[in-house]
Amino acid sequence: MRASLYSAVFAMIVALSAQAQAQTSISAAILPTARTTTVGQPATAFASIVNSGSQMATGCRPALMDGSLPVALAYQTTSPANALTGTANTPADIAPGSTQNYLFSLTPSQSFDSLPVIIDFLCDDGVRGAYVRGVTTFELSSRAFAPDIIAVAATLSGDGVARGNAPDGFAAFTVSAVNIGAGPAPVTVRPVSGLLDMPVRYDICQTDAQSQCLGPRASSVTVTMGSEPAFFVVRAIGLGAGIPLYADVLRTDVVFSDAEHVVRGRTSVAATFPGPQADPAAGQMPAGLWTLVVDGNGLDHGDRIVGRLAIDPQGGVSGDADRVRYETYAGDYGLQGMITADAAALPQPALQGSLVEAFDIETGEIPPYPVSGVWSHRTGLRATVEPHATLRRRIRAVYSPDSLRTVTLADLADQYDFLYRDGNAEPADLGNVALTAAGGLTVSLPGLLCQVDGTLSQPQAGFNLMTVSLTLSGGGCLLAGVYTGHAAVVTETIGGHETEVIGVVFGDESMIDSFMLARQ
């Protein structure tokens, strides 16, 4: 088991290091990423740190990001074969291009379930590894008489990346797991997308040691797990769009939960699918809905911006996202502007333009900034936005499965509730909206001094991306003016249930915001 654990950790590190920016000195990963133990008993896992810089990384070690947690961390270096080396709790120096492995333990001082523990990877002189959800995070439980699942995933290519064979094909990988806690116990095993949604659906089956399914494939499987290893095959099935290789954010997690829905084990692989050669609906523009992640300069360690990006066939751009700090809401983020694209550029189609970046929704006029990047049809988009001479943020996006819906204004004509979500809170119902088959919007918001009217239009018939224009007017309306943006039918979680809504993002140079329309 130790050899396979090391192989899986090393595979994740290779995938991450291949994408590391030149200025990044170290990358890190841990495996497994979830364990259950009891008070006073350590839960162990393996870690690897890769020095991807050109200088010696000195004094490198794993540490707790949050020292206030009721958990104690200890570590020791290991050889490539996972044999203990060196002295406990002693940092190591890592040469350029080299990897150092560690065994670390987390010992809880009280009982709890599903405590997120972020493992920070530090070296001297302030060098630290990037925070990567699902790769440097550990879900720890301290509970007696509970299963403790150690799970390892393996891909056909052996490098920790599950590769699809076509936009509507599939990528398969195997998972082996053993319960070293209380057992036998019923455990539900479910594959899910990680940080960003991907244009795939999943199925899984339990298998024998030769990877032959023992039952029908389904979105999850419940098995009784004891001390004997259990084996599974997971398939990610493409929905007609590609997936770029962003190994730190585009991952498939396999989650092991007990009868009380507490996570008792987890493993993951990166995923990538080839995209179509062309996208007739988008033409020569990366038009559609994209799932967005922004990181880079100006964001604190552990901060990321995650949300949606809309690009219409004329090059209009709107983005609405949340800034999250270690998966906790920390502020709003918006993008708006125009781009032009060169679909014939080599080696990849290119884009450039000018965007307004509203970070935490500042008030007052925000000047536009240059943006440039590359994209692939119905697959991925990479760009940089430079809001300041000393800041350069990276934009990455994956084509959203919501773009593949067929939508007409006539189908959407109805009465809607006007919903507004503030951060992670449940959305508030602020009023009513009537949408006509011609795209007319009539908004009634009790208590608002502004009269709101608008229109939706569809640049491409049937394409799930509409442009929106909203006019705020009336005496006492401090926000009077015309605001433009985009709308699309998307799936949101409301009241614990997945619900189809019309998501709208709109704004101008001084304000970018969003709301949802839910059928009454």
Describe the structure in your own words.
The strands form 6 sheets. Strands 19-20-21-22-23-24-25-26 form an 8-stranded antiparallel β-barrel. With 520 residues, it is mainly beta. 45% of the residues are buried. It is 4% helix and 54% strand. It is built from 2 helices and 34 strands. It has helices at 2-17, 409-412, and strands at 26-31, 34-37, 43-51, 57-64, 71-78, 92-94, 99-108, 112-122, 137-142, 149-155, 161-163, 170-179, 185-193, 200-207, 221-225, 230-238, 251-257, 263-272, 288-296, 303-311, 316-325, 328-342, 350-359, 369-375, 380-388, 391-399, 414-420, 428-435, 440-444, 451-457, 466-473, 481-494, 497-508, 511-519. The longest helix is centred in the N-terminal third of the chain and has 16 residues, at 2-17. The chain folds into 4 domains: 1-142, Immunoglobulin-like (Sandwich), CATH 2.60.40.10; 145-275, Immunoglobulin-like (Sandwich); 288-402, Beta Barrel (Lipocalin); 404-519, Lipocalin, CATH 2.40.128.10.
Describe the secondary-structure layout.
Elements: H1 2-17, E1 26-31, E2 34-37, E3 43-51, E4 57-64, E5 71-78, E6 92-94, E7 99-108, E8 112-122, E9 137-142, E10 149-155, E11 161-163, E12 170-179, E13 185-193, E14 200-207, E15 221-225, E16 230-238, E17 251-257, E18 263-272, E19 288-296, E20 303-311, E21 316-325, E22 328-342, E23 350-359, E24 369-375, E25 380-388, E26 391-399, H2 409-412, E27 414-420, E28 428-435, E29 440-444, E30 451-457, E31 466-473, E32 481-494, E33 497-508, E34 511-519
Parallel strand pairs: 2-9, 11-18
Antiparallel strand pairs: 1-3, 3-7, 4-6, 4-8, 5-7, 8-9, 10-12, 12-16, 13-15, 13-17, 14-16, 17-18, 19-20, 19-26, 20-21, 21-22, 22-23, 23-24, 24-25, 25-26, 27-28, 27-34, 28-29, 29-30, 30-31, 31-32, 32-33, 33-34
Organism: Hyphobacterium marinum
Keywords: Signal
Protein name: P/Homo B domain-containing protein
